[in-house]
Amino acid sequence: MGYSIGTVAEKTGLTTHTLRYYDKVGLLPFIERTPSGQRCFKDSDFEWFAVISCLKNTGMSIKDIKTYIDWCMEGDSTLEKRLEMFRKQKELVTAQMEELQLHMDKINHKIRYYETAVAASTQTVRP
Length: 127
Hints:
mainly alpha, elongated
């Protein structure tokens, strides 16, 4: 089944502008076109969008995402490169999660502090 760019935008949460941009910068080499040149998306393309969104949302650059997609298009000869790319991305995400946990610990500390202050109807001036 073929999907229009508008339908894909609705299903993925990406804007049509973002989808066009991704196509323009080479992130969507797998997208087929109708004889008139319109993009025609397939069910199998949605997994690509999920991976692209995952990588982008974890801080990978568009340039590196394009490299990954290019490697995928090259085939099995790039499997080791792709594996290493995902291992490095995992390290980055793990570091991000550790940093976020530190922030969460601070927020939880402040919640406990203010719950105590509210219960006592007073606080010592502190940030």
